[in-house]
Input
Amino acid sequence: MQDAPWPFPAITLKNLVRHPVGIADSRHLFTLPHFLSKEEVDGFLQLGELHPWEKQNASILSHPTDGRSRIVVPNVSPEFLGRQVATQLWVDTGLAAEMQGESMMEEGKMWHPIGLDGFVRLYKYEPGDKLSTHIDQRNPVEMPSVTGMTWWTMLVYLSTCDGGETVFFNHKGQELGRVTPQPGLAVLHLHGDDITSLPHEALAVEGGLKFVLRTDVVYAVS
Output
């Protein structure tokens, strides 16, 4: 990563400890405090200072009042691929070891976590920006040696702000818990089907700026 065209420090191994979110089933939703160090968070924030933001609005998002901006890491330059970042976030933090026991059986096939999607995005929410209640979908991903499928959403907060919490619901619309943005805090939740995937929303930012790193945990059939 030393040749990357932005100030990105080496990712270090963490002592990752899962924390539940409210009354949600921790098999479907949990946080990992201190997933990124202050220096690592600052590296991603400086990416946002070096490259232009793409504004997303109602034509892209799910609700007319939604809004945010993004940088797609693989698009930053031809020399810098999101796969490099994804590999470091997966291996060097210890996340790969943490997710080792999260294999899933579906329709007679055993799926195993194999890495993070290289389609890494950096999101910026300004005051008033929010995301309405929605469910994340599974997507096929071309990994280095196999075509996989996303199973978990991973968000990593890079800042604090007023408002901007991520709120999770059951399928009856009852709140299960909410996560307040804290720098370096990761949130992982299952996605892709009507049973395990939790509806969630990002509340409007009331003050300051909210920065979030987003990618997905990819699975493949053994």
